[in-house]
Amino acid sequence: MKKVLFFTNIFPHYRFAIWKKLINSKTFDLEIYFSQNNPLGVHSPELKDIFTSNEISKLHLIKNYWIKKKVLIWQSKIIKTVLFNEFDYLLLLGEMNVVSSWISILIVKLRGKKIYMWSHGLYGNESFLKKYFRLQFLKQSDFIFLYENRAKLLLQQNGFNETRLAVVYNSLNYDLFEKLFKRLLKTDKNDFITFFKDNSLPTIIFVGRLTKIKRLPVLIEAVRKLNKIKISYNLLIVGSGEDQEYLENTYDSIIDKGWLYFYGKCFDENRTSELIYHSDLCISPGNIGLTAIHSLSYGTPVASHGNFKNQMPEAEAIINGENGFLFEENNSADLANKIDIWFLNNSNIDKDLIRRIIIKKYNPENQMHIFEKMFSNG
Q1: What is the pLDDT of residues 86-138, one digit of tens each?
Q2: CB of 257 closer than 8 Å to CB of 173
């Protein structure tokens, strides 16, 4: 059985399901090194609450060193580990800024071991210098796992052989979502969407952190345009963040009209699932990320902007016109128009059709199939 050492930055809550599968693989033996010190604002659960003692034995804590709590530049233990531990593969996060990764790559190459990366690859919006150094770093790998097909194409266009690349997608807690989805099939929207003056109207939902990069004013202004003559849609905003107070103060007059509601943060998946499932459309006007996977898992269509240079990999899960739509970035008028067209053409949603891409690609089982194939054949 091949031995894999995986050095990553932190343990985000959304990685729980795939981490659990990785460390319980019968095909390869994987151990994960990460830091519990998390400056990125991503929720990290307590290990003892979700992993068994045997699983925890495969999780190793290290120390990360950041510049301004944003750029990871060094990780403790990695140099010593790759020098003295026995392993077949070193799996790295794939971030060129981590100086300790460059040094460990040199050591691993001298030891005749293989280097794999789990990476965004190229984003497509890099400056000349950033692109150059990112490509030089990625070229040190024997194989790269990527989050999206677009990144794979960009690397191929820059000289990478397709046989060195695999799209492993991304996932959330698929098994839990399946259980909750089946339970929600028997429920009624009127029991859960109760925040508006007219709860019978179609509900548009946003789920995520309320930050500038999420471009919430674009969404609110789009719905305001649509509701200007006659109130036709409700807008539910779920989440908290640095812009929450500003948004609530700016749009307090709309809140009073009864079609805009700020729910606040929600870490209870039972409750979040109810809100997403019984909403008619999820829109993330900035980059969408895992919100797309979250929403599609419950059969709720998704919309976001179509400038993929400024998107997260999960935007690729949106099949325009089938399980949601794309609109022009930062254009509230275009978004308003697309919302009206969507509801005009999709009065009856088939939730199983909306969920199809999650069942096929964006789940831990599919990811594990890809990991096991590559670690077995490598």
Answers
A1: 999 999 999 999 999 999 999 999 999 999 999 999 999 999 999 999 999 99
A2: no
Supply 89's token pair. Answer: 């593969």
**At which residue do the structure tokens 């839990």 appear?**
176
CA separation, residue 92 to residues 2, 155, 361 (Å): 16, 17, 23
- Which residue from 58, 113, 61 is spatially nearest to 82, judged by alpha carbons? 113
Crossing angle, helix 174-184 and helix 364-377, to 10 degrees?
Answer: 160
What is the identity of the amino acid at 23? I
The closest alpha carbon to 221, from 66, 57, 331, 139, belongs to 331
Q: What is the per-residue pLDDT across 241-290, written as a single tens digit (0 to 9) for each?
A: 999 999 999 999 999 999 999 999 998 999 999 999 999 999 999 999 99
Radius of gyration of the chain (CA): 22
Q: Which amino acid is at 248?
A: E
Three-state secondary structure call for residue 312: coil
Pairing relationship of beta strands 281-284 and 260-264 according to DSSP bridges: unpaired
